[in-house]
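Dear colleagues,

As part of the handover before I leave the project, I'm documenting each prediction I ran so the next person doesn't have to rerun anything. This entry is a single chain, and its sequence is reproduced below.
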Amino acid sequence: MNKTISAAKAALAKHNKLPFSLYSAAREQKLLNVPITNPLLILVLSGSKEIDHLVLTPGKFIFLSNTPKLNMRNIPNPGNYFSILIEFQSSDFLDFPRTDNAETHYIQGPVDTPLETLVLQFIEWASLAPEEILHHRRKEILHLLHHSGYKNVGNLAEIDNFSNRVKNIIQSDYSREWAAEDLALKLNMSQSSIRRRLQTENNSIQAIRKQAKLSHGLHLVQTTAYSIGNIAEHCGYQSQSRFTDQFKALFGMTPSELRKSQASIRHSENN
């Protein structure tokens, strides 16, 4: 696991916008209502992680399907907490049809040598390869898991719904205050139809917009050295205090509290 941590740190010291993240904690972090917007592979490298009722120790992985919210604890004992996160896309799962109609919310297991090797190769290729190559690298990981006995890995693929379509538009420009009329133009639908479709999924434009912006803020706090003010601006907030208040109301910690709890990874301001 130490080799993987070192490789990730080295890559992050040289490049920005890499297709993986290294999360860290020097003090315990307790985060509430964390949304998983795309299937997410997490490898715990040191310390431990709790996700709702699950406990992950070093050398364990969990692969999460997209879900509206999860409660998490990152526990730096012994030593600092480090984990690698790789976000997958729906297109990565096209070779893996769903095995049945039952939902699979996660799969978990040990990080064996083949899996660690593929993840390490993904990290090393991340700064060199175009997205098409990285797409194949992600599929290699899925094939390995499938052949290792996780036959329901295809069930983790994001189930397309209307809320996700709206979310994807909002995520294309966090600085924009997306209104119903803007979404209507993008979706070629009436505003009333958009609202009705979202209501059938117990959702709304305001709720999706708020969650998308705060989730992006959570990611930036954990993976960059941006100031909290800059992060608020990146997420479309004109007021840092409003961003901080809404961030704490959703996740249970302020951005500053979360930032202070992290272990050093030496992110640069350009990340």
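The chain has two domains: 2-156, 162-260. The radius of gyration is 19 Å.

All the best with the project,
I.
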